[in-house]
Amino acid sequence: MQQLVQLAQTFADETRLRILTLLLDSDATVSDMVTRLGLPQPRVSTHLAQLRKAGVVSVGTAGRQRVYRVDAARVKAVLDALQTLAPTTPRRSPQAAHMLRSPGRDCRRAAAGCHAPPRMA
């Protein structure tokens, strides 16, 4: 069970998901990923190390470069499964939910940019 928890935590980070999505398109070096993702090199390298530790990413060499790749079928299956579990409607903040439950409330105080007319007394 602990291995499953660790694997789920591996997929529970936006940066790692972005890296995996990029690697589904093609193999890449760290410098390729830094350029394409617009992230600093240490951040990309740290996440790649976590992905390698989890066995999700493998690395090979091409000359002096280290090239990272994923098992596309396995990773795509996991990402597709996560997508099917994701809610289809965005979650509302507690404040937004309260606003919807309170008809007639003057929302100008609750949210900037709300142009509701003032309530008549």
Brief summary of the model shown:
This protein has 121 residues and is mainly alpha-helical. It has helices at 2-10, 14-25, 30-37, 41-53, 72-85, 94-101, and strands spanning 57-62, 65-70.
Give structural notes.
The chain has 121 residues and is mainly alpha-helical. It has a domain at 2-85: Arc Repressor Mutant, subunit A, CATH 1.10.10. Helix content is 53%, strand content 10%. The chain is built from six helices and two strands, in the order ααααββαα. A two-stranded antiparallel sheet has the order 1-2. A hairpin with a 2-residue loop joins β1 and β2 (65-70). The radius of gyration is 22 Å and the shape is elongated. The model has no long low-confidence stretch (mean pLDDT 83).
Topology:
Elements: H1 2-10, H2 14-25, H3 30-37, H4 41-53, E1 57-62, E2 65-70, H5 72-85, H6 94-101
Antiparallel strand pairs: 1-2
Question: Which key phrases capture this entry?
Answer:
53% helix; mainly alpha; Arc Repressor Mutant, subunit A; 6 helices; single chain; two-stranded antiparallel ribbon; 121 residues
